[in-house]
Amino acid sequence: MAPSEAETELSNAHDEYKKLATNTFFSFLINYGSHFFTFIYSFLLARLITDQIWEFLIIATSFISIIVLITTLLPPGLNFALNYYIPRYLALNQKSMIKSLIKNAILTKLIFVIPVYIISIIAFSYLTDIFAITLSNKISLLYILSPLIIINSFNVILAAVNRGFSKFNFLFSLLIIKNVIHILPLLFYFLFDYNIEVELIAIIVMFSSLVPFIINFLSVILRYLKIKSEGNKTEAFKESFSKTFKYGSYTGLTDNIMRFWKEIQLQGISVFEPLGVVTGYNIALNYRSLSSYSAASFRFPLMTSFSGLSTKEKFDQVNKIYKITYRVNLFLLLIISGVLFFSVDFVLDFVFLEDRLIYSTILKLVLIATIFRMFGQFLQTLLNAQNKVKLPLILQITYMLYIIPLFFIGLIFFEGIRVEVAIILGLIIGNIISLVIQILATHRFGNIKLNIKRMVFQYLTFFIPLGITLMLESVIFKELSFNIIQNLGLSLFKNFDFLSIGAFVLLFISMNLILKTVTTNDIQQFESFFVNKDKTLNKIVLKILSVLKKITRD
């Protein structure tokens, strides 16, 4: 007996939830795994080289990153076009179109990247005096890291192809390979107490990207060859380029504005602040990712799911997934951010050495700013999946019109506390203004009405416990935690303020139970995405969700 239409619809919905759950799980592993390895890398660098030498490496990497960002504009948003069209073609079973899209995307990137690479090498040679302003006598780092221009430019495209086919698990494997190559040589130098030059570190960085790139490239070629085309419908290069440019130009520009903004912050601080502050700010940007990755991990899986569902006009499912994921993600973001806030001194001391505790305030302020950034990613993903790609670009440009001036007002006019004021004005106040705009845009353009009262209460569950815990920390917790740890003979953990962390978590859970910002029903609906409960990865996630259900109620 053939299944009914309702049964077919339910089966399709379960398949989509299953794909979203699996992709999100591996996206979490990629993001947090990447950060775990970054901490190990930072731990080793902090003990192998000085702050000044480390700053040269950061600035050189920033210059290379800016060039890579330029290549992503040539043509703009090619990776986003792949993320958008591959799931659509899969939903429509148009395999010939997928083959044409992949082939033309790689050819397009090749046409633009090679000239940019050649021009970059020429610029390094003839503009030495300009680069020497911030790199001093370490210009050689640019030449050593220059292959990353080609590698990272193509990696963006290859990763997009893998995400389009929901191969997030393969991307996680590549992350492991990259970081094994990245960390093992540094670990050898650290364990045997050998001196290491920053140029050798740059070579290690370059090779750690080269090996997984080769594996990734060969994998995509093999996947391309295995696609069995049905029918003769293909796209010519010109037609494919036009389509991807039309979609990707807006999404690419939107994404690159934020990427450029990060590099502008680093370069701006290197001009106005003394040596070492760039290192502290870079640590802060990396540290904040520990909290923001909970939301960022949903970005590409949601894009894949929303694109397929929008193609099939399953807008009710889009609405349901959107509301549940943002609510649960905000819950996770807030509790993680609170724990990280009271762990700042310990992380700086344990990972980066005690003399970097001077950056504690910077890290804490950047964390506060981060909790107001999450919603923008959800809105951008929703609008991109609905092919409303102009709107995120317009919104992003609008944000920058006040965020950049506010940031540089703090950086230029508040000597002595430049970075702190820049973060408060540009990142915290700027992000709050952006959040208000994003809520209005979600209702107006995304056709999703949010519960504003509930969202305000969610933020209160963070700020009230944060304020109370800060008072308790200054009065008793910090000193008491220190004395307990010292009495236990664990001086290595002397800055681990476990009492403040525990107090914040208890207060946060209590506030959530009182205000019911995230309920057991929310967790159960989120849990329904993981329909295949026998798979190991789903079992892990379900265990985590079962814990969350115990600290929520209806």
DSSP summary, beta strand count? 0
Share of helix among residues? Answer: over 70%
Q: What amount of the residues lies in strands?
A: under 5%
Task: Write the element-wise H/E pattern from the N-terminal end onward.
Answer: HHHHHHHHHHHHHHHHHHHHHH
Largest sheet, strands/sense/barrel:
none
> What distance separates the N and C termini?
40 Å
Q: How would you describe this structure to a colleague?
A:
With 554 residues, the protein is mainly α. The chain has a domain of 180 residues. It contains 22 helices and no strands. Helix 3 crosses helix 10 and helix 10 packs parallel to helix 17. The longest helix has 44 residues. It is globular.
Quick recap:
With 554 residues, the chain is an all-alpha fold. It is 82% helix and 0% strand.
Secondary structure: elements and pairs:
Elements: H1 5-48, H2 51-72, H3 78-91, H4 95-126, H5 128-135, H6 140-145, H7 147-164, H8 168-191, H9 198-226, H10 237-272, H11 277-296, H12 299-311, H13 315-341, H14 344-352, H15 360-370, H16 374-385, H17 390-413, H18 418-445, H19 452-487, H20 498-515, H21 520-527, H22 536-550
